Known about the structure:
The structure holds two protein chains of two kinds. Chain A is built from 13 helices and no strands. By secondary structure, chain A is mainly alpha-helical. Chain B is an alpha+beta fold. In chain B, 29% of the residues lie in helices and 23% in strands. In chain B, strands 1, 8, 9, 10, 11, 12, 13, 14, 15, 16 and 17 form an eleven-stranded mixed beta sheet that branches. A four-stranded antiparallel beta sheet of chain B has the order 4-5-7-6, with helices on one face. The longest helix of chain B has 19 residues, at 2-20. The N and C termini of chain B lie far apart (62 Å). Classes of the chains: A mainly alpha, B alpha+beta.
Amino acid sequence: MRSFLLRRLALTVPVVMGVVTLVFLFLHMIPGDPVEVLLGEQALQADREALRKELGLDRPLVVQYGVFVEGLFRGDFGKSIHQRRPVSELIRSRYPATLRLTAAAMLVSLLLALPAGVVSGLRPSTLLDHATMFGALLGVSMPNFWLGPLLILLFSIHLGLLPVSGSEGAQSIVLPALTLGCSMAAIVARMTRSSVLECLREDYVLTARAKGLSETAVVWKHVLRNALLPVVTVSGMQFGSLLAGSIIIETIFSWPGLGSLTVQAIQTRDYPLVQGCVLTIALSYTAVNFLMDLLYGWIDPRIRFDGSR
Amino acid sequence: MVSRDLNRWALCLAALVLLTCGCKGEEDLLGQKVLVVGLESSPVHLDPRIGTDAGSSRIQQLLFRGLFQKDEVGEAVPDLVQSWEQPDPVTYRFRLRPGVRFHDGRLLKARDVCHTLESILDPALGSPLRGNFETIRSVECPDQETVVLRLSEPDASLLTRLDVGVVAEPGQPGQGGGETGGLIGCGPFRLLSWDPPREVRLGAFAGYEGGAPALREVRFKIVPDSTVRVLELRKGSIHLIQNDFQPEVLPLLERDGRFRVLKDQGTSYSYLGFNLRDPILASREVRRAIAHAIDRDGIIRYLLGGLAAPATGVLSPSHWAYEPDVQGYPYDPDLARRLLDAAGYPDPDGPGPRKRFELTYKTSQNELRRRIAEAIQYQLESVGIGVRLRSYEWGTFFADVRKGNFQIYSLTWIGVTDPDIFRYLFASDSVPPAGANRGRYENPEVDRLVKRGKSVLDKEERKRIYSRVQKILAEDLPYVSLWHGMNVAVFDKRIHGFRLFPAGDLVSLREVWIE
């Protein structure tokens, strides 16, 4: 277990640095000058040059990269060019909202998808199965930017139950989580169904039934646990990508998450802020992958971290 | 057995949904004299010396006051200034209004004005406004109520630029940090809180010189999506929206008896810009042909919902320096074709698919702008000009425009006030990064006129100068003028006193009262 942890940690550093380095290079290659965006067209050329010097943008790219990496190891992400505040402070102000939305969306997704997928798997080719899979198809086909306003119209305007947008109060998370969770649930439900169907064909299920176990016990103790592995993989990947923020959901519901901060930073060529956001996303993704690996070991004890079986 | 377990799941889910859904009604904030305004984006910086974007400016105007403010026709009228004189063309002496207080109760003094201007001129602050005041040679405060500005040369548009908010000089007794980081203004509202991605809250300032506003609080709620902003308005969680919504929803809101709709001519100016160093577009006949090929009225009617008026130049008809008698370009595709033939670009196959020449039209990714670009593309193709549309992310698009890496593009100027803008847009030494002559237009007579217009102080003389400038530009066509946008406000009908300003300012919120 210890060697597994050390191996994963050792791998995390080059992966994250690779991502951040690529983003650094691409960011400096695309057209657009952060100084021009910040000062506007009417600024004096002398002021532009002074600001460029102050921000270190007049130095060679290699030097800028070196300064950035050195700051990373000190835990200093630098200051946002556009908002003139520390990058870490801006990310800290947005990341909890992204975490909350991600967790809520995953909860909605699993609450909808797992029962639906299990029922479909247990009752293949029945009306219930067809209805569930049709619902899953609908869920994956409906774009978020269409579903979101529809849910707002229904729950906020006509029924008056929920706020339209914003992040104040516990109720404000319901609609964005539902919008995100529905499309994710569709994928997880289909994956769960396939996985359950496959497990039901296994010999140990036949043995369990032959031993006289109740159907509930067969499903809960044998089928579900084995069927969960692929579901955990898909859910983990979805969780990781959600941590990058969903710009569409954040725009529709005025949700102050990391996605909108990252997009805004790119549009204003706010190099330190983009790099800080990307680093946060990369670290989040690797952390989620790591947790998924640990979860595999708990779900299936046959998977050993030291490679033995 | 499995079905029973699933039934339990369903019951739990239903309970969870019900628990998280309250049946809480919408709080009547308007009844508490709290007005919620919907904004598309968060202000970037509330310091009036630094935040120059439209979103920041509109809130700064409620927090701070300047020496002057702009009236409905764009002229500078005194605000903090009680009287002023100009003993010579390069000296201004301002006498401040007595009894004006900052939000912390302290009286406004000349030192505060001097501090504001000196800090803008100080390169250390990095103020984008420094270029606006480059003619100021010195700022003096001979006594507590007098400010003297000495210039390096006459500057006719200085007073319109002195609407920048005055901030209290720091380090004074009673000043605190608070939400503004120590910035204190003397506007009708004071800053209560600023949560950048969510909202800005302003509270009425009881000590405001003209009497405290009738509103107790103004909240600016940030709602990036235009559809959701309208839904918030319908729900009652936003009470006022100005501009920033799709034209097609306006008839719906007009029919809704809960709202009042105000419309008025604005000063925003939409145009098609040319790169005059392009060999095709260097021809004035080609530019005139393009102008005649565009059906502005049709685009305004069908794409903008009638919320614009055709433009003849940069200045709107309400501007004091507007010249109505300039060459016009009515929609006339036949004339456009004849002009292109005369320019040496005949149609190679008549009504066939081959084009006279091809142009690349760059625009941003804004949905409305793309639709307008598609309409213009269709209209130009109907006279035989092939158009390749390219839409880019804003930063990339704007960088290309600034560098001259385009043939034609479309954009909008907002907040056009002083006619010195002609120097900024069309003087040959205003090519970026020095100015905004993006099309690289050159005309020695325009250069001479705009330079003179900046230094002449007599208003009638300036009007004559800029009249001539507008006529020349209408003939040369570095821009094809498209339209001036209208300002539209939709608000709860219990709100009274709100007025539209041509530049889209929200200053009339200080006069708003709730029924």
